[in-house]
Write a structure and sequence with these properties.
282 residues, alpha/beta, 8-stranded mixed sheet, binds NADP nicotinamide-adenine-dinucleotide phosphate, single chain, ProC C-terminal domain-like fold, 2 domains, Rossmann fold
C-alpha cells in the first residue's frame, strides 16, 4: 500500500512522522508533494520518504492520497486533479470545512474520506473524527482507520455536519487549551513566580486535572463542584468567571469556529472569503 500526501506543511509532516513512528508503512511507500519543491525535498531528506515533482505524480503513485493543503488553496489544488484518480484509490481530506460533495465535484472521484485530526497527533495523542462516502469499501475503511490510529484516537461518524462540529471542538480545541494555559501562565507571573516555576505549576495543573478526569471518569462539572468549597478561593474565581460571562464567551467562540468551517466550504465552492473582505476594510 502506498500513501501520498499533498501539502508538505505542518500536518503533512505530522502525518509522515506518525505513519513512520507507528510502522504503518515503510518510508519508501510514502510520497509527498507541495506547491514549492523545497518543502517535500526537505521532508524526504529528514524521513527518507519519496518526494514528487507535482501533485499528479502523487496521484499516480498512491493508493491513499491525503489532501493536506489549507482550505483556501483547496480549489486550486483539486481542479487540476480532475480525472486523475482510478477506482480503488481513496482520497482522504483533512482540509477544514471542505465537503465531500465539493471534493467529488472537483476531482471527479467518489471514494472519499473526510477527516478532522488535531495537532497532538504529532505525539500520537491526537483525536481524529472522520466520515467515509458510501463508495469506500470496508477493506479501504480499515486501512484508513489504521492511518488515523497512528495519530491517536479516532471515531467514525455518519453525519457530515459532525466533521465541522469536530473542527470547532477537537480540531481547534488544542489552541483553546493553550489559550487558557497562556492566561494562567500570565497570572502566575503577575503573582510573582518566575517563568520556569510558572511553567511547572501550570503544566502539572493541566496534566493532573486531565489525568484525574480520565481516571475517575466523572463529569467535569462534578469534579469542579468537588473542589469548590462555599466561600473559598475557587468559588471566588468561578464567581468572577460567571460575572464576566466566560461560559457565554466559550460558547460564542466555538460557534464562531463552526461558522468559519461553513465559510471555508463556501470558499472551496468558489465564493469569496468574507474574512478577507473584513481584513481589507480594517
Ligand atoms: N494545523 C492543524 O492543527 C490542523 C488540524 C486539523 C486539520 N488541519 C487541516 O490540515 C490542512 C493543512 O494544514 P497545515 O497546518 O498543515 O497547513 P500548512 O502548514 O499551510 O501546509 C499546507 C501546505 O500546502 C501547500 N500548498 C498550497 N497549495 C498547494 C497546492 N496547490 N498543491 C500542493 N501543495 C500546496 C502550502 O504551500 P504554501 O505555504 O506555499 O502555500 C503548504 O506547504 C488544512 O486544510 C487544515 O484545515 C490542520
Amino acid at each position: 500500500m502506498n500513501i501520498g500526501i499533498i501539502g508538505a506543511g505542518v500536518m503533512g509532516e505530522v502525518i509522515t512522522s506518525s505513519l513512520l513512528k507507528k510502522n504503518v508503512v515503510a518510508a519508501s511507500q510514502i510520497m509527498i508533494a507541495d506547491a514549492l519543491p523545497e518543502k517535500p525535498a526537505a521532508l524526504a531528506k529528514t524521513y527518507g520518504i519519496r518526494h514528487a515533482a507535482d501533485n499528479r505524480e502523487v496521484t499516480a503513485f498512491a493508493d491513499i492520497v491525503i489532501f493536506s493543503v489549507k482550505p483556501q488553496n483547496s480549489r486550486a489544488m483539486m481542479e487540476p486533479l480532475s480525472g486523475a484518480f482510478h477506482e480503488g484509490q481513496v482520497i482522504v481530506s483533512i482540509m477544514a470545512g471542505v465537503s465531500l460533495g465539493t471534493i467529488e465535484r472537483l476531482t471527479g472521484h467518489k471514494e472519499l474520506v473526510r477527516a478532522m485530526p488535531n495537532i497532538p497527533a504529532k505525539i500520537g495523542e491526537g483525536m481524529t473524527v472522520w466520515i467515509a462516502s458510501p463508495s469506500v469499501p470496508d477493506c479501504s475503511k480499515m486501512i484508513v482507520k489504521m492511518i488515523f490510529q497512528a495519530f491517536g484516537l479516532e471515531t467514525e461518524v455518519t453525519n457530515e455536519d459532525l466533521i465541522d462540529a469536530a473542527t470547532a471542538i477537537s480540531g481547534s480545541g488544542p489552541a483553546y487549551i493553550f489559550y487558557v494555559a497562556e492566561n494562567l501562565m500570565k497570572s502566575a507571573l503577575e503573582l510573582g513566580f518566575d517563568n520556569r516555576e510558572a511553567h511547572r505549576l501550570v503544566q502539572q495543573t493541566f496534566r493532573g486535572a486531565m489525568d484525574l478526569w480520565h481516571h475517575t471518569g466523572e463529569e467535569p462539572e462534578t469534579l469542579r463542584r468537588s473542589v469548590t468549597s462555599k466561600g473559598g478561593t475557587t468559588a471566588a474565581a468561578l464567581k468572577t468567571f460567571g460575572e464576566r460571562k466566560t461560559p457565554e464567551s466559550f460558547s460564542a467562540a466555538i460557534h464562531a469556529a463552526y461558522v468559519r468551517a461553513g465559510q471555508l466550504r463556501e470558499i472551496a465552492d468558489g465564493k469569496p472569503d468574507p474574512a478577507a473582505d473584513l481584513e481589507k476594510q480594517s
